[in-house]
Write a structure and sequence with these properties.
It contains ten helices and 13 strands. By secondary structure, it is of the alpha/beta class. The mean pLDDT is 93.
Length: 291
């Protein structure tokens, strides 16, 4: 098969969506399919992979991993019909997701969409906190999602809970399949968590670790609050956060406000290849995100 992935985020961005897109592309390529990536351009990236095509984009003045992409490219317009696509697969419902829907209709090929996240929660990025305004924004996001879902021949969700969310919130009864993002276990088998734990001085700690972008929708404050409660019963608990983002400074201050700053370690952004060793060095994985 010839499949086109349209995504608003790809390398060099580090995110769950990028990991999913890359993992599925690798697996499908190994199965003998041709997967073409259509993504925003990035001045920080020189693509070494084949079949990566970039649309013009500019970074937004707000702290997101998704730039403002302009789905206008005469080169890509000429290229797409020559690829003899069997499927166009959108990984976002906006920007390049809308471009994917348009191209699927023009080329008369099926449109598949992976519903990666609860998009209404991103209303937090609109700089208006009033409840009524937030409610209107969330309603507008829901309307956009419903309209996009109607354009899709099939929807993929990464978990059973996300499938339940689609049914309950958007009335979807069929046309969806649960396909979790696969994990290559080989780096985890070979990773040396014990040596890393010793090098970091965590031998006597109970380490709770979490990985993700430090952003409002990831619910990090709840994780810190839970950690503060746990520390009363487990004083040797250490909370380790891997990742970076717009909330880092406020989260560091919040850890101080909770009185647990000395038991919280912010490691920042790490190469993906380093993550398996850190996870093996920990005792507990914590996850508070609702998106």
């Amino acid at each position: 098969m010839h499949v086109a992935f349209f995504t608003n985020a790809y390398h060099p961005v580090i995110s769950g969506v990028v990991r999913s897109v890359a993992a599925f592309r690798q697996a499908m390529t190994q199965m003998g399919h041709n997967v073409f990536i259509f993504a925003p351009e990035s001045s920080e990236q020189v693509d070494q992979e084949p079949f990566i095509f970039r649309y013009p984009a500019i970074d937004l003045p707000i702290s997101t991993d998704i730039p403002l992409t302009f789905p206008i490219s005469s080169f890509i317009d000429r290229l797409l019909p020559t690829l003899k696509l069997d499927v166009i697969h959108a990984h976002h419902p906006v920007l390049l997701g809308q471009a994917a829907a348009t191209k699927a209709e023009e080329l008369n090929v099926p449109l598949v969409f992976t519903f990666h996240s609860q998009y209404r929660e991103y209303s937090l990025y609109f700089p208006i906190s009033a409840d009524k305004i937030q409610e209107l924004i969330r309603g507008a996001i829901d309307s956009l999602i419903k309209d996009f879902l109607r354009k899709c021949q099939h929807i993929i969700v990464p978990s059973e809970s996300m499938g339940t969310f689609l049914v309950q919130e958007y009335g979807l009864q069929d046309r969806y399949t649960v396909i979790p993002t696969g994990i290559d276990l080989r780096p985890f088998i070979s990773a040396d968590g014990r040596s890393l734990r010793a090098a970091l001085g965590w031998q006597n700690d109970k380490v709770l670790i979490s990985v993700g972008r430090l952003a409002p929708e990831k619910n990090w404050k709840m994780l810190l609050e839970a950690g503060a409660c746990a520390l009363r019963a487990v004083p040797d608990l250490r909370i380790v956060l891997i990742g970076d983002g717009p909330e880092r400074e406020s989260l560091e201050k919040y850890a101080g406000y909770l009185g647990i700053a000395d038991r919280v370690t912010f490691l920042g952004k790490l190469p993906y290849s380093d993550i398996p060793a850190y996870l093996k060095a920990a005792d507990i994985f914590g996850f508070a995100s609702q998106v």
